[in-house]
Amino acid sequence: MQLKFSTVLLSAIVLSAFAVPARAATLVGTSVTGSLVFSGDPSTSNYFDPINGFAAPGDLNFIDNSTTVTISGAAVEFGYDDGVSNAFSADFSGHQLTITDMVEGTGTNFGFTMTFSDSAFSGQYLVPVNNLTLIENYSSAAGVFTLSSTGGSVTAGETFADTFNVTSIPEPSTQGFVCLALLAFGILAFRSFRRVAESGRAESE
Predict the structure, then answer these.
(1) For the chain, which end, N or C, has fewer CB atoms within 10 Å of the first or last residue's CB respectively?
(2) Is residue 81 scored above 90 in pLDDT?
(3) Better-scored residue on pLDDT, 11 or 77
(4) SS3 track for the chain
(5) What pLDDT score does 195 carry?
């Protein structure tokens, strides 16, 4: 009886590690604040801010004249275009974020960091959809997404785009640690119940 119970327990624990959490509600309609800061810029200016003169016409930060916009399923939320080197955009959808760089001039890109804050991001993770070509580091913490690139040599006409799922499921590496921990717990529980069963048989003999 103890053996059967511990086997069921172990199976339940392992299966729970692979269970899919409920998907977060759509991001569309939530309020997000965005920032684009270039490495080496002593002013640490936010270049998504229209006041700096580089907000891309047609994107919501330009239209709303603000660094805080409402996520739309049909428009790009944040855009930057200097007309010489780069045109960056950050486009949210219901459950994704796509960062794009359309290279306008051959040379060396500056590194940059983008940050996005939204109460809807709490408990959410960024999980890459493609092999990353632009973003090198990214994190999710306390309702804030941070993405960065160190820059590098580029050629006019190139386009780099990275897409991330916004999900309550952590990256596979994080899930793997959770699964291993739960599996280890299950094995320990199994051994404990087996020792109890063997001890009970010994006493009855």
Answers:
(1) C
(2) yes
(3) 77
(4) CHHHHHHHHHHHHHHHHCCCCCCCCCCCCCEEEEEEEECCCCCCCCCCCHHHCCECCCCHHHHCCCCEEECCCCCCCEEEECCCCEEEEEEECCCEEEEEEEECCCEEECCEEEEEECHHHCCCEEEECCCCCCCCEEEEECCEEEEEECCEEECCCCEEEEEEEEECCCCHHHHHHHHHHHHHHHHHHHHHHHHHHHHHHHHHC
(5) 61
- Two tokens, residue 49: 């801010």
Give the per-residue pLDDT at 21: 46
Closest CA to 185 of 197, 196, 193: 193
53: left (phi over 0), alpha (psi -120 to 50) or beta: left
